[in-house]
Design goal:
By secondary structure, the protein is α+β, with helices and mostly antiparallel strands. The chain has a two-stranded parallel ribbon. The radius of gyration is 13 Å and the shape is flat. It starts with 9 loop residues before the first strand and ends with a helix.
Length: 51
């Protein structure tokens, strides 16, 4: 069995999640992605500091 690579969760803003859900129609996907450890909700300031 092949093990998967560990990837750090993607840092996203709540505004970006809201826009994605509205555009794609996948309402609630942000909550699921956070629950499964794929995304971390951060502030705009935190995103700009890590760039």
């Amino acid at each position: 069995m092949q093990k998967g690579m560990y990837r750090e969760p993607l840092k996203v803003t709540q505004e970006a999640v809201d826009a994605y859900e509205k555009r794609s129609g996948f309402h609630g996907i942000g909550k699921k992605m956070v629950e499964h450890g794929r995304w971390i909700i951060v502030t705009k300031e935190e995103v700009s500091c890590t760039s």
